[in-house]
Design a protein that fits this description.
With 255 residues, the chain is of the alpha/beta class. It has helices at residues 24-37, 56-66, 79-82, 96-106, 133-146, 177-187, and strands at residues 8-13, 43-46, 73-75, 111-115, 118-122, 152-155, 192-197, 204-207, 211-214, 229-237, 240-248. Helices cover 25% and strands 23% of the residues. The radius of gyration is 17 Å and the shape is globular. The structure holds fe (ii) ion.
């Protein structure tokens, strides 16, 4: 019997930013995972900035933390794991060397898996507008994936946009307008139900024909607004999405 269209529960966590097993971020990640497990999800997604520097040691810590989860755990690289988005004046940008290092430690930076009839497409958002050869490879990969039949969920780190589809770029946070438009045009009419991202360290929700949701962090919220830490559980069918925000206690000293 086809599983296409069955309701699917996703635990979506992001921006874990840990370095060591005894740091607050790692402990909060573990607390968030325990809470997420109690919601009995079918699948776990992690929206990048898993680690603070993308080192082998940090990657090993991540894999150790998820080894007992007997459900799929899908994840993408964030700027801390693989390098910043390329734009003028920014240092520490993504390079082919950093991509190779990430792949060595974490595995592929873009890939797809089908679970419960949903095609999950994991993309390396740091590649967008990078001009690297891997950017073209990823774009061809995305086009092929969008031809797969059935509903699709896209996981990236940097959101495509924060407030509106035609907002300007030139900043650290979103995708540049040109590549954003190219991707949004590609996604249209292809059964994409959600584009899930992280990076913003706060919950952001936009709806076009597609839900665009940026997950809050498990590590620390954006300081100036103190929205805090947490994660999101989504219950998804091809025609409907409900989501709920879960809080994670902060171990950091309160201001
Ligand atoms: Fe982050």
């Amino acid at each position: 019997m086809s599983q296409v269209g069955k309701p699917l529960r996703i635990a979506f966590l992001s921006d874990t930013h840990f370095v060591e097993a005894d740091d607050f971020n790692y402990k909060q990640w573990q607390m968030a995972l325990e809470k997420a497990k109690s919601t009995d999800p079918d699948i776990y997604l992690v929206g990048g900035d898993i680690t603070n520097s993308g080192s082998k040691k940090e990657a090993e810590l991540f894999f150790a933390s998820i080894k007992d989860i007997n459900k799929p755990v899908l994840f993408v690289p964030g700027n801390h794991d693989i390098g910043n988005k390329v734009f003028e004046g920014v240092e520490g940008t993504i390079t082919s060397e950093r991509i190779a290092y990430y792949r060595e430690n974490f595995g592929p930076d873009f890939y797809a898996e089908n679970h419960h009839g949903y095609q999950f497409i994991m993309l390396n958002s740091q590649l967008f507008q990078s001009g690297l050869p891997e950017e073209k490879e990823q774009m061809s990969f995305l086009k092929k994936q969008l031809e797969v039949e059935g509903p699709k969920i896209i996981l990236i780190h940097n959101p495509l946009f924060l407030n509106c589809v035609d907002e300007p770029g030139g900043n650290y946070w979103n995708a540049e307008p040109e590549v954003r438009k190219e991707i949004l045009d590609l996604l249209a009419g292809k059964g994409v139900v959600a584009v899930l991202s992280g990076h913003m360290h706060k919950l952001i929700v936009n709806c076009t024909d597609i839900l665009h949701l940026s997950c809050p962090p498990t590590s620390f919220g954006v300081p100036e607004i103190h929205l805090g830490q947490g994660f999101v559980v989504l219950d998804v069918t091809p025609s409907n999405i409900h989501f709920q925000l879960y809080h994670v206690e902060s171990l950091y000293e309160k201001p």
